[in-house]
Amino acid sequence: MNQEIAETRSQPDSGIRNFTVLLSSTPRGARLARLLAADALRDWGLPQETANHVVAELAANAATHGRLPGRSFRLTLYVVGGTLRIEVTDTRGDRLPALQAPDGGAESGRGLLLVEALADRWGVVEGRFPRKTVWAELSLKPPEPDPTRSGGIDG
After folding, report:
1. Nearest to residue 55, comparing CAs of 95, 7, 99, 87?
2. Angle at Cα 58 formed by Cα 19 and Cα 106, nearest 5°?
3. Cβ proximity of 64 and 70 under 8 Å
4. Which terminus of the chain is less hemmed in, N or C, by CB atoms within 10 Å?
């Protein structure tokens, strides 16, 4: 199997945590990316729902569009301060992702639209050929309270 052991690191008192794993560019590898990310976030005591959706979309894109036979993709999670950064690196640097308006009846093509809606920021970094990294950042800070509300249920 084309897979490395997952590595999780925490630097005490620095607020920096990271997790990285190399996975096969298959639907199984994409599913495993989501499961491993959820496990790392749970271990770190961080919210998982939004991050799981972003990881699922980026990993599925890597396994589908970034796939080259015999090549893997890498999932990396970083937590620095109040930001979670999700990175997925594949070996199709010649195929950069772009937002597209999907056909109304299409069953696919909405992944990056979902990432755009869920992430605070996202982008693509061209790596040393033939690699590219698609990344997304999520704020882990709770939203600021609305000063126009009293805090009561009825507002």
Report:
1. 87
2. 160
3. no
4. N
Element holding 55 (H helix, E strand): helix 49-64
What DSSP line would sit under 72-134, residue for residue? EEEEEEEEETTEEEEEEEES-TTS--------TT-SS--HHHHHHHH-SEEEEEE-STT-EEE
Cα–Cα distance, 137 to 44 (Å, whole number): 17
Q: Both tokens of residue 47? A: 């919210």
Chain-centre distance for alpha carbon 14: 22
Quote the tokens at residue 37. Answer: 């990310």
Q: Work out the angle at residue 9's Cα, subtended by the Cα atoms of residues 6 and 10, and round it to the nearest 5 degrees.
A: 150
Tell me the percentage of the chain whose pLDDT exceeds 70.
76
Dihedral sign, Cα of residue 143, residue 12, residue 21, residue 78:
positive
Give per-residue pLDDT as tens, 102-134: 676 656 667 889 999 999 999 999 888 788 999
φ/ψ of 23, rounded to 5, equals -130, 155
Q: Model pTM? A: 0.79
d(CA 8, CA 40): 8
Please count the other Cβ atoms lying within 10 Å of the Cβ belonging to residue 79.
20
Number of helices and strands (H, E) in the chain? 3, 6
